[in-house]
Design goal:
Chain B: Keywords: ATP-binding, Ligase, Mitochondrion, Nucleotide-binding, Protein biosynthesis. The complex is a heterodimer of chains A (509) and B (538). With 509 residues, chain A is an alpha/beta fold. In chain A, 38% of the residues lie in helices and 12% in strands. In chain A, strands 1-3-2-4-6-5-10-11-9-7-8 form an 11-stranded mixed β-sheet, with helices on both faces. In chain A, helix 8 links the parallel strand 7 and strand 8. The chains are: A alpha/beta (509), B alpha+beta (538).
C-alpha cells in the first residue's frame, strides 16, 4: 500500500478500493518503524489518524453516492518541515529558541493542503533555521538517509552503528518521510537547494517552483528573497498535484504574483523532440563524482536520441553565486533573526538584569554557532561603511546571475539539464569533518544559482550509483514555466524507470 | 528712545577700554554693537515630525488603530512579529501620505521602497522598523507658515521639506523602576506613521512650534492625522545646533519625542542656550540623543542611546516596490487599491494657507486675526456664520471674535467648535458694540451672560431690559462731567499745568464710573475738553 504514489492512492480512495483510515494507519506504523532515522521532531500521529478516520467516512459517503463532493487529499498523510507554522502543533525550526513554540496560525500552503483533506503526520527534522546542507545541525540530532541503512531491531542499538549516509538538507526530514513511505508527500523549503539536495540524496522528486507562485506566509524565513516552499513527492505527477493544490496568489504574501494561475494536469503522452535542452558548461564542477557525470551524460543522450536539440550553453556568472549567496543570506538572516529576543515568544534566558543582558543571554542560548556566525557576518555586511561594498555588490551580482538565465532562455533554450549534487549522499563521518559553512558552500553549488534567479527547478531520481545510492538530475526552466519543467521531468521519469526505495520488509517483523 | 548702552558688553572687544573712557563716542559703540552680533551664536534647527496616520487599520496589518483600547488587545500576529508573518501594505496609508505630500508641495516618487531599520528595543518586536530610507514616498517641498516674531509681530515664513516617508510606529514601554520590570503594550506597534523631515530652516523654539502647528492644521484639514499630541499621535524630534552666521553648521544634538508644542518650544530654546554656553565656555557640543524633561524644562542625555547607532538599513524583501500612478498611467495598474496622484490633487480641500489668503483677499483681515481664526478649530466657519448675520465690517467682527470672544472663552476653557453662543446671537452683540448701542464693557458682559446662562431674549432686549444702552446725549452727560470737575480740583489743576492727556483720562475714568460705564467715552472726553477750555479762557 505504501508503494503507491499519491496519484494512485487518490484514485484508489475515489473508487473505494482503499481506506483512508488504513492508509494513515500504515503510514504511522512505517514512521514508527523507521523512527531511528530521526526525521520527525514532533509527531502528530493520533491527531492525523483521527482526521483520517473522519476522511474515510467522507470517502465512503462519496463512494456510495451519498455525496458528490470529494476532497482531493482526504485523509492522506503528509509531512511538514518544522519551519512551517502549524496551528497548535509545535514549530521549532530545530532551534532552542523556538523549542516550545506553538504557533497560533497555519502557513498558507499547509492550510491549503489541509483544506484539501491532507493530514499532517508530523513535523520534520532540519538544520537549525534551515541553515545547512546535511540536516546534521539540529537540536534534535542529525537525520539519517534510509538508503543503504541497516535498521536495528531495537531503538538503542542503532547508536552503535558507526556510520550512515546523510539525508541532505536542510529539509532532510521531509525527504526521508517521502522516501520511507511514511508520507505521500512533504513540504520543505528551498533557499539555496534545501529541497532539491535532500530529494536527490534520498531518491525522491524535489520541486522548487518559480519564486512568487507559492505563498511564504507562515514559512519561517531564512532568506525572504530566495525562500520558496519546496515540494517532496514520490513522482513528478505527485509533485504537480501538490503544486496545483497549493499555488496561487496569497493576499498575506505581497511577493506572490497576482496573475491568476491556470491549474494543470501533466499529460501522460509527452514528446520532447521539439525541445532545446541546454547543458551549462559551468556545471562541470571540480569534485563531481564519475557516477553523477555518467548519469548526466546518459540523460543528455536520452534527449538527443529522441530528437531534442541538446547543446552546451554558458551561465558565466555561476562561479560568483556562492559568494553572492553568502552575503545576501547572512544579511537577511541577521535581520530576520533580530525578532528572537525572548520577549513575545520563544526561549527566554533567566538573566533579567537588564534588557540588553536578557537579549544577549537569550540569543546566545537560543541559537547554535552556525546561526550566530551568520548573524555576525550579516550585521557586518549591513554596517553603513560596508553596505555598498558587500550587500549592494552582492545584489548586483545576483542580477547578473539572473540575467545569465534570462539570456539562455531568451536564446531559445527551453530547459536546462544539470546534476543536482556533486556526488551521491556522503557519509555522516565524512560530512562532519568540516564545518557547516564549508559543506553548505560545496553542497549547494548546482542548486543555489537557481534561487538567485528565482526560476523553477526540479530534481528527479535518475539512477543508483555503484554503491546503491540514488543520484538526482535537475531540470531548470524560465520563470513561470513550472508546467514545462514538470512535463519534461515527467518524461525523463518515464524513461528512467527508477525503482523507489522499498522498505516493506520492515513491516513484517 | 532709550539711551545707548555706554560700554560695550563684549570685554574682549579691542576698543572696549576706549569706549569706556570716552562714553560719548557713539560711532564706536555702533562698531561694538556690530561686532557683538557677529559674536552671537545662532540656533539652527531641523525637525522630524512623526504623525500617526488616520486609518482604521495599521500600516501592514489589519489590527485596529483606535486609541485607548485595553493593553495588548490590538495586536495581530504580524504586530507581535510572530515568525513567518509578512507585511501587507495598507493602501489607505499610502493615500494619506500622497495627500500630505501634495499639501507640502513635495515631489512624489512614482516608485518608492521600504527599508528595515534595525535596533533592539523591547517594544520593537521585529527588531527593526519598516521605514522608507533610500527611496521615500516624496522628496522636497515647502510650507508657508505664520510666525510671531520677537517683536510680537505676525509674519509669514517658509520652511523647506526634505522628505516624507511612511513607517511603522513602535509599541510602548512602561518602566517600573522599583519593581525592576518593564511592561510592554503593543497596541501602538505597527500603526502607520508619516515622518516629515525638514531642512534646518528654523531659528528658535517659537519658529519650530509655529511650523509644526501649521503642518498639524494641514493634516487635520486633509483628515490624514486627527490625533493630538496628548494621545501621542504627533511626536517631534528636533535636531539642534548653534553656529555663528557665516560659519559652517555646528555639531547637532537630537532631542527626541517632544510631545507638545510647548515642549518643542522650550526644549529647542533650552538646548540652544545650553549649547551656546558650552561653546562660550570653550567646550564642544557632542552629537548625542537627548530627551526633554518638561518638569525641569531641561534636556538630558538619553542613557541607552549614548553611542552612535548603526541602523544597518536593508531593503525590506517582503514588500515589492510601491508604485503610484497618475491619469496617464492609471490604466497600467493591476492592483485595484492604488493611488492616483492626479485624482488626489483634484480632491484637495482648501489648505490652511488657502483659507488665510482667502480671508485676507476677501475681507482684508489682519494677519493676526487670520492666524488666530485659522488656528482655532472651526474658527473660520464660525467667523463666516457671524458674517452672515452681522452688518458690521469684517475686520470689526474678526477683532471681536479674536479679542473679546476668545478672551472670555479661553478664560473659561471653551473652544469655538462647541461655542454655547450661536453665531446669530454673537452677530447681534458685535453689531451692538459697533453701532454704540451699548458700551464695550457691557458687550463683554453680554458675552459672559450668554455663555453662562440659557437666555432666550435677543441681546438687544437684554441691553434694553438692563438699561445697558450707551448714553449718547449731551444733555445727560454734561451734568455728570460738571460734577466730576467740581469734585476733582486737583485734576483740573493738573490739566492747566499742561498734563492734559493724563488729567483727561483720569477724569474720564471717574465719569465712566459715575455713569456705570454707560457714558459714551468719546463724547464725554469732548465735553470735558470743552468745559476745561472754557474754564481756561476765564
Amino acid at each position: 500500500m505504501l508503494s503507491l504514489t499519491l496519484r494512485e492512492a487518490i484514485s484508489k480512495l475515489k473508487d473505494g478500493s482503499l481506506s483512508a483510515a488504513e492508509l494513515c494507519e500504515k503510514c504511522v506504523t512505517r514512521a514508527k518503524r523507521v523512527q531511528e532515522l530521526n526525521f520527525i521532531v514532533t509527531e502528530n500521529f493520533s491527531q492525523s489518524q483521527k482526521e483520517a478516520v473522519h476522511s474515510a467516512r467522507l470517502w465512503s459517503e462519496y463512494v456510495s453516492g451519498r455525496h458528490n463532493e470529494w476532497r482531493k487529499f482526504g485523509g492522506i498523510p503528509f509531512a511538514i518541515k518544522d519551519n512551517f507554522c502549524t496551528k497548535d502543533i509545535r514549530t521549532t525550526c530545530a532551534s532552542h529558541i523556538l523549542n516550545n513554540y506553538v504557533p497560533p496560525y497555519t502557513a498558507t500552503v499547509v492550510q491549503k493542503l489541509q483544506d484539501a483533506g491532507g493530514v499532517i503526520i508530523g513535523k520534520t527534522n532540519m538544520d537549525e533555521f534551515a541553515m545547512g546542507a546535511g540536516s546534521t545541525d539540529s537540536i534534535f540530532g542529525p537525520v539519517r538517509n534510509p538508503w543503504n541503512y541497516k535498521f536495528a531491531q531495537s531503538g538503542r542499538e542503532h547508536d552503535k552503528i558507526n556510520d550512515w549516509h546523510i539525508a541532505g538538507g536542510s529539509s532532510g526530514g521531509s525527504a526521508v518521510a517521502v522516501a520511507t513511505g511514511a508520507s505521500f508527500g512533504a513540504f520543505g523549503s528551498d533557499t539555496g537547494g534545501s529541497t532539491r539536495n535532500p530529494a536527490a540524496y534520498c531518491g525522491v522528486v524535489g520541486f522548487k517552483s518559480t519564486y512568487g507562485r507559492l505563498s511564504r506566509h507562515g514559512l519561517i524565513p531564512l532568506v525572504n528573497s530566495l525562500d520558496v516552499p519546496g515540494i517532496f513527492a514520490k513522482s513528478v505527477d505527485d509533485a504537480s498535484l501538490l503544486f496545483n493544490a497549493v499555488a496561487g496568489h496569497d493576499t498575506r504574501d505581497s511577493t506572490t504574483v497576482t496573475d491568476s494561475m491556470d491549474t494543470f494536469t501533466l499529460p501522460d503522452d509527452i514528446s520532447v523532440k521539439h525541445l532545446h535542452i541546454g547543458i551549462p558548461k559551468e556545471y562541470h564542477a571540480p569534485g563531481m563524482s564519475p557516477c553523477v557525470l555518467e548519469a548526466w551524460r546518459r540523460a543528455a543522450d536520452l534527449f538527443d536520441r529522441v530528437g531534442a536539440k541538446v547543446s552546451e550553453v554558458s551561465l558565466p556568472h555561476t562561479q560568483f553565486s556562492i559568494i553572492c549567496y553568502s552575503v545576501l543570506c547572512c544579511a537577511e538572516v541577521a535581520s530576520n533573526m533580530s525578532r528572537y529576543d525572548g520577549i513575545e515568544y520563544g526561549h527566554r534566558a533567566k538573566n533579567e538584569d537588564s534588557t540588553e543582558e536578557l537579549y544577549a543571554a537569550t540569543r546566545h542560548e537560543g541559537f547554535n554557532d552556525v546561526v550566530r556566525g551568520r548573524i555576525l557576518a550579516g550585521n557586518f555586511f549591513l554596517l553603513k561603511r560596508n553596505y555598498d561594498n558587500f550587500f549592494l555588490k552582492a545584489q548586483k551580482v545576483r542580477r547578473l546571475i539572473a540575467e545569465d538565465f534570462r539570456q539562455v532562455f531568451g536564446g531559445g533554450v527551453d530547459i536546462l539539464l544539470t546534476p543536482t549534487t556533486l556526488t551521491e549522499a556522503p557519509t555522516y563521518s565524512w560530512f562532519t569533518e568540516v564545518d557547516n559553512r564549508t559543506r553548505a558552500e560545496e553542497q549547494d553549488v548546482f542548486t543555489q544559482p537557481i534561487n538567485l534567479a528565482g526560476v523553477p527547478a526540479i530534481t528527479v531520481p535518475a539512477s543508483l550509483s555503484q554503491s546503491g545510492l540514488p543520484i538526482g538530475l535537475q531540470f531548470i526552466g524560465p520563470n513561470f514555466h513550472d508546467k514545462e519543467v514538470l512535463t519534461v521531468a515527467k518524461w525523463f521519469e518515464q524513461q528512467t524507470n527508477f525503482k523507489r526505495l522499498d522498505l516493506s520488509h520492515l513491516d513484517k517483523s | 528712545m532709550a539711551a545707548p548702552m555706554k560700554i560695550c558688553r563684549f570685554r574682549s572687544c579691542a576698543i572696549y577700554s576706549r569706549i569706556k573712557s570716552k562714553p560719548k563716542h557713539s560711532h564706536l559703540y555702533k562698531h561694538c554693537r556690530h561686532n557683538s552680533t557677529q559674536e552671537n551664536w545662532k540656533g539652527v534647527i531641523g525637525l522630524e515630525i512623526h504623525a500617526q496616520i488616520n486609518t482604521k487599520s495599521k500600516l501592514f496589518s489589519a489590527s485596529s488603530t483606535a486609541f485607548g483600547a485595553p493593553t495588548n488587545t490590538q495586536v495581530s500576529i504580524f504586530d507581535a512579529a510572530l515568525p513567518g508573518t509578512l507585511p501587507v501594505l495598507n493602501g489607505e496609508c499610502v493615500r494619506a501620505g500622497v495627500k500630505t505630500a501634495i499639501a507640502l508641495n513635495s515631489k512624489i516618487n512614482k516608485v518608492s521602497k521600504f527599508d528595515r531599520k534595525h535596533y533592539f528595543y523591547a517594544d520593537l518586536p521585529q527588531g527593526y522598523q519598516i521605514t522608507q530610507q533610500r527611496q521615500p514616498l516624496a522628496v522636497g517641498g515647502e510650507v508657508e507658515y505664520i510666525l510671531i516674531d520677537q517683536n510680537n509681530r505676525y509674519v509669514t515664513k517658509t520652511a523647506r521639506i526634505t522628505q516624507l516617508q511612511l513607517e511603522q510606529d513602535s509599541g510602548r514601554s512602561l518602566h517600573d523602576e522599583e519593581g525592576r520590570q518593564s511592561l510592554i503594550d503593543l497596541n501602538r506597534a505597527g500603526i502607520g506613521l508619516m515622518e516629515i523631515v525638514t531642512e534646518p530652516d528654523f531659528e528658535n523654539g517659537i519658529d519650530c512650534s509655529s511650523f509644526v502647528r501649521e503642518v498639524q492644521l494641514m493634516m487635520r484639514q486633509l483628515q490624514v492625522c486627527l490625533g493630538s499630541f496628548r494621545e501621542g499621535a504627533l511626536r517631534v524630534d528636533a535636531n539642534i545646533s548653534v553656529h555663528k552666521p557665516s560659519e559652517p553648521l555646528g555639531v547637532r544634538s537630537e532631542v527626541k519625542n517632544l510631545g507638545s508644542l510647548k515642549d518643542l518650544r522650550n526644549a529647542v530654546d533650552f538646548e540652544i542656550k545650553r549649547q551656546k554656553s558650552v561653546l562660550k565656555n570653550g567646550g564642544t557640543v557632542i552629537n548625542e540623543t537627548r530627551t526633554f524633561d518638561s518638569e525641569s524644562g531641561k534636556t538630558i542625555p538619553m542613557r541607552d542611546k549614548e553611542r552612535l547607532q548603526d541602523y544597518r538599513f536593508m531593503p525590506e524583501p517582503n514588500l515589492p516596490p510601491l508604485y503610484l500612478y497618475d491619469n496617464s498611467t492609471a490604466a497600467q495598474s493591476r492592483d485595484q487599491n492604488t493611488t492616483n496622484i492626479d485624482e488626489e490633487i483634484q480632491n484637495m480641500p482648501p489648505l490652511p494657507r488657502d483659507v488665510r489668503n482667502k480671508l485676507i483677499n476677501d475681507y482684508n483681515l489682519s494677519l493676526r486675526n487670520v492666524y488666530v481664526l485659522v488656528n482655532e478649530d472651526k474658527g473660520v466657519t464660525f467667523f463666516n456664520e457671524v458674517m452672515k448675520y452681522s452688518n458690521s465690517p469684517p475686520n470689526f467682527i474678526a477683532n471681536f471674535i479674536v479679542n473679546d470672544l476668545l478672551g472670555v472663552f479661553n478664560a473659561n476653557d471653551i473652544k469655538i467648535r462647541n461655542s454655547p453662543i450661536s453665531p446669530d446671537i454673537l452677530a447681534e452683540i458685535v453689531d451692538i458694540k459697533e453701532s454704540g448701542y451699548s458700551t464695550v464693557a457691557y458687550c463683554s458682559q453680554l458675552v459672559e451672560l450668554y455663555l453662562k446662562q440659557d437666555i432666550t431674549e435677543r441681546p438687544k432686549t437684554v441691553v434694553d431690559n438692563n438699561g445697558w444702552r450707551q448714553i449718547v446725549d449731551t444733555e445727560t452727560l454734561k451734568p455728570v462731567c460738571v460734577k466730576i470737575l467740581k469734585e476733582n480740583p486737583k485734576l483740573v489743576k493738573k490739566y492747566f499745568k499742561g498734563k492734559e492727556d493724563k488729567a483727561l483720562s483720569s477724569l474720564l475714568m471717574k465719569a465712566l464710573n459715575e455713569t456705570q460705564m454707560k457714558g459714551h467715552p468719546v463724547l464725554m472726553k469732548k465735553i470735558f475738553t470743552e468745559l476745561l477750555e472754557e474754564e481756561k479762557q476765564k
